[in-house]
Write a structure and sequence with these properties.
Radius of gyration: 20 Å
Order of helices and strands: HHHHEHEHEHEHEEEHEEH
Structural class: alpha/beta
Largest sheet: 7 strands, mixed
Number of strands: 9
Strand order of the largest sheet: 1-9-8-2-5-3-4
Helix content: 40-55%
Length: 320
């Protein structure tokens, strides 16, 4: 989708998307809805096929995943690293199918195959009365895991809007049915308002957002650009920061949601110490199911020094 769409305001009124140029997107959405109605095991099978196709055809994304996994798991031999890359594409292919479930089906029907661990940690943090920042990560169960979480707690969410305005409208409306408020990624005023009302807000820090307001904290032993906003938010709002994660079970259809104790003495006053602590927590969760993480993102794109060689090679310039 063209970059100009990024500048368009969020419009969730479906009547704005009747023009024929939106018909291909509508067809894609219809396909997602149809797949979401299938039995879960069949969806997982289709997701595996989709993941394997992407592993074969999406060479640039496969290269990024190969670099990330080579950097993060040096203890694995080449065959093990290659297998993890392949499995990561499969897991994220299944996650693609699960988006339809999160958007178009009733997540409560999956409660019987969902296990929740440590819910008491979240409840204790909320009792403090200053809101809770749910420190999540970009796992392959991103959308469905979020929907399942709202079966047990009330929460709001921060999202990066989709480049396609129609897809963004569907996503925002679907998430709006599950979450109390769907905040834009830069809506800090809305975030603080939610926390002031003692709400929980889903929030993730585990992507490369560029060089602004970051420190280079270790992540899998690599100095990694990590935003300091988490410390600023906690300092200003006095909210509790509760790490949580969600994974697909390997032994059969089912999901696990983990809530961990709220971070003590956070923020510490040292941005690097705080970022190091957060990265260590996310790394710990990733190691529970390494293939279920979004390794296709260029997590190590921003280097400590501008002259440092990049890990992913030079980005090709588009021909005009």
């Amino acid at each position: 989708m063209k970059k100009k769409y990024r500048k368009l305001p969020r419009n969730t009124d479906y009547s704005a998307y009747r023009h024929p140029r939106w018909w291909p997107t509508w067809l894609g959405i219809a396909a997602m809805w149809l797949v979401a109605q299938l039995p879960l095991r069949l969806q997982w099978w289709l997701g595996k096929i989709a993941g394997l196709l992407a592993w074969r055809l999406a060479k640039s994304r496969r290269h990024i995943a190969e670099v990330n996994i080579r950097l993060c798991f040096p203890e694995l031999n080449q065959q093990q690293q290659a297998a993890l890359v392949r499995n990561a594409f499969i897991a994220n292919g299944i996650g693609l199918m699960e988006i339809g479930v999160a958007w178009f089906r009733d997540a409560s029907k999956l409660k019987k195959i969902t296990r929740v661990h440590g819910l008491e940690h979240f409840e204790q943090a909320l009792e403090e009365g200053h809101g809770v920042l749910l420190l999540g990560g970009h796992y392959s169960t991103l959308d469905l895991g979020g929907s399942l979480v709202t079966e047990y707690i009330e929460a709001d969410v921060m999202q990066r809007d989709h480049n396609n305005p129609l897809m963004n409208a569907v996503m925002t409306r679907a998430r709006g049915r599950r979450y109390g408020t769907v905040l834009g990624a830069r809506d800090l005023r809305g975030l603080f308002r939610c926390l002031k009302n003692n709400r929980a807000v889903w929030y993730a820090t585990d992507q490369d957002y560029g060089r602004k307001d970051i420190v280079f904290a270790p992540f899998f032993g690599i100095p990694t650009g990590t935003i300091t906003a988490t410390s600023r938010i906690a300092e200003r709002s006095k909210c509790k920061v509760v790490p949580f994660s969600h994974f697909r079970r390997e032994d059969g259809p089912g999901y696990d949601i983990y809530f961990h104790p709220a971070l003590e003495n956070f923020p510490s006053g040292d941005d690097l110490e705080d970022a190091t602590r957060i990265n260590a927590i996310i790394e710990q969760e990733i190691r529970k199911a390494p293939d279920q993480y979004l390794w296709m993102h260029r997590r190590f794109k921003t280097r400590p020094n501008r002259d440092d060689p990049g890990f992913y090679g030079r980005k090709r310039k588009k021909k005009r």
